[in-house]
Every structure is written in structure tokens, then in C-alpha cells.
Amino acid sequence: MPITESSTRARATLARNHRTGHSQLAARRYEFTCPSPDSYPFQWAWDSSFHAIALTHLDTRRASAELRSLLSAATPTGFLPHMVLWQDDLRPTATADFRIDLWEGWRSVTIAPPVVAHAVERVHRATGDGLWLSRVLPTTLAFFDWLHTHRTDPGTGLLEIHQPDESGLDSSPKYDAALGLDPLDEKTVRRAWHTSMRELITDYATPTRTPESPLRERRRFVWIDVLLNTVYADGLASLARLARTAGLPERTSRQLAERSHAIGAALLRHCWDETAGAFHDLDLVAGRRSEVLTASALFPILLDSVPTAVANRVIEEHLLNEKEFWRPYPVPSVAATEPSYDPEFRTGAIFRGSSWVNLNWYLHRGLRRHGYHAEAATLAERTCALVAASDTRECYGPEDAAGHGARSFGWSSLVLDLAAPSTEPTEEH
Ligand code: GLC
Hints:
Elements: H1 2-16, E1 18-23, E2 28-33, E3 43-44, H2 45-55, H3 60-71, E4 83-84, H4 91-97, E5 102-103, E6 107-108, H5 116-127, H6 130-151, H7 176-179, H8 189-204, E7 223-224, H9 226-245, H10 250-270, E8 272-273, E9 278-279, E10 281-283, E11 288-290, H11 308-319, H12 357-369, H13 373-390, E12 395-396, E13 403-404, H14 415-418
Antiparallel strand pairs: 1-2, 3-4, 5-6, 7-10, 8-9, 10-11, 12-13
Helix pairs in contact: 1-13, 2-3, 2-5, 3-5, 3-6, 5-6, 5-9, 6-9, 9-10, 12-13
The chain binds alpha-D-glucopyranose.
């Protein structure tokens, strides 16, 4: 039984990766679930949001604590970092291991896809705890305001990122051209990516760098990422519902809902490719679309503001296309028709073809939203089969279910949510 087996493995991972303590440098207590004890020992923002959603099925106290710890790392300006390096003893080696620039010594200056708003909504729905919501909602709203103020590209109205890892999709081949990498050189692509990232970070690293530094003016990497913008619009829709639940003025809720719709509309206007039937990222430095077909090109099927006819084309022509994404263990992070498709993890670089539980979790929601219930059930079942076969790994082979990358990997425990009856919030709630 893949579902039972995968749930057992997810539970064990969430227990193993639990971390609590007191950080001297940050001067506060923490409680979170690390993505992987060996590879990723700190708190990562979108990972933690997925962990909290998985934990709603196991331990709602922990789910609530996970998000409180994460949001306690927000800065007074509203910025929420991708990485929070709580542990004083582990921190010294981290800057050598990861390509990061830190703010006040313990948080990254980079963002992650803002999954946190949807996670707050899910945890609140599981607990009904109004006091907890009153504590976390202002910080979450402030972060979304921060994104709006500091990361909106005036030309498109969409959020921009300044490093590939801000989308969470680090080595996706969609960034190869902008980073000057040869996508087909399997042996060197991973090393070349690291070299290119180090150059970028060194270039950005001034003693006065803050999360608000206007990096777009440097014209090094300015990118509109479809996945990140979809997650943002989804989060704004969650916040609109939460604002109403929390009794905030009606205009706050209305403005959030409008912003969510505006992002969906801007994705359609600027990223939708009518010929290809897919959404493409924009490279604002080169002034062109990135046409590499990756799983993020499918993400807007999640949004209410994307017309059904558009979503159906994405689903029928790509997601359910056996030559591209509907492989034996879907959904590969890169279409199987792309020359850079790396299903066996030969490059050792992430998001170059492997299947990922968090991407599947989103696309499962998108399929359900458009009435593809049987296909959504198949996707959930095959995702659980990955975890049952190869345990909670960072990513999996879309052809053979082999596990790759980090072990005891936290967000693969989202199978607990995939296996559960739908708890999808809707606009009516
Ligand atoms: C890698 C991924 C990033 C993730 C982190 C921890 O850096 O690219 O998205 O948050 O690992 O799992």
C-alpha cells in the first residue's frame, strides 16, 4: 500500500528533522523542522511552510510553532528571509557550504517563494486558533507588502527576483542562458552553476547591502519567475480570506483579492504564449522570454483568475502529455522533450528533470481546481508511490522512482496532505 507506507515514512522524517533551542545571536527561541539533517540543517522559508501543512495532519501544535518561528525572523521592514540560521554552533560552517549573503549574521538577504501565507491559512483552518492568527497575520501581511513595494517590476506589475535561488528552483535549465551555462554539458553544469552563483553574489556583496538594496539597477539578473508569481497570487488570495476571518477592514481584504487577480492577469498578459500553450518566465536583462519548458510553465493552472480555456490547454497539451510531463512518475521538473532533461540526476544539479513532491502538491491542486479529479488522484497516488519506493528524498527519477539528493527530506512529507481528503480553501470561505 503506497499511501500507508509513504505516510509512515513522512511521519518518521518529520520526527527526525524536528529542531528546538535558543539562538544566542538572534536572541530568541526557535522550533522548526529542518529540510534534511545532513544537507540542510537550518530553517528554510518555503520548506517550513510545506512542513507546517504536512504537520496539520500530525501535530497542530508543532505546525503552529513552525510558522511562528519562521515569522519571528522577519525584519522590522517586513522582509522575510529564505534561510534562517538559528543554530549558533552550525552557523560558522554554513557560509562556506551555501552560497549566501547574510543579514545581521543569521538570515539570508534573499527571498523564497512566499508559500507562508497559504500555510498560515491551512494551519489556522486546522486549529481555529484566533489568538495564534492575530500573532502571525500582521507579519505575513507586512511581508506581502514588502514584496509589493520592493520587488514589483513597474513594467509588468509582476514580482522580480535577483538570483536564481530566490525562486527556489536553483539550477533549473531555464536560467542557463542568463548564467552563461552550456545546458548540455552534463559533467560541468553543476560546477559552472556554482561558479556563476558565486560571481553573482560576490558582485552584489557590498558592506551596505540590505534586503532592500536596489539590485535591479545592477542589471545582473532580473527575472520574472512564473512559479514565484503564481505562489504569490495564491498567497494573496489566502490573505484576502484570512483578513476577513480576522475581522480586518473589508477594504484590506478587497485590496488583497484585487492584487491576487492583478498578478493572474499580468501573468496572462506578459507570460502566456498562445502558440506554445504555456507560461514562460521573462529575462528582463536580455529582454526576452525563457522558452525552456519546465514545470513552472504549468503553475498558473492554480489560479482562479486564469481562464478555464487557458488552464485546460496547459493541462491537456502539456501536463497530461506523456511525451512531456505525464511520465511514469510525474511531474518531471523539466519536460522530457527538452534537450537538458536529466531524469537520472546525472548532472547532480537540482530541478533539471527530477520529480519533486512540492511541485506535484501544487499541480495536484491545479488539476482539482479545473475538475480533473481522476488525474489528480493518479498524481497523488504516484507521488505517494515515489516516497513508498525510495523514502523521503529531495527528488525522484520520473522514469524509475529512484531517490536522489538529500535524505530524510522534509517537504516530501507533503504526501500526508496528498493522501488526505481535500482541505482546499476557496473564495467562499
Ligand atoms: C535548495 C533548494 C531550495 C530549498 C533548499 C532547502 O537550496 O533549491 O528551494 O529551499 O534547498 O530544501
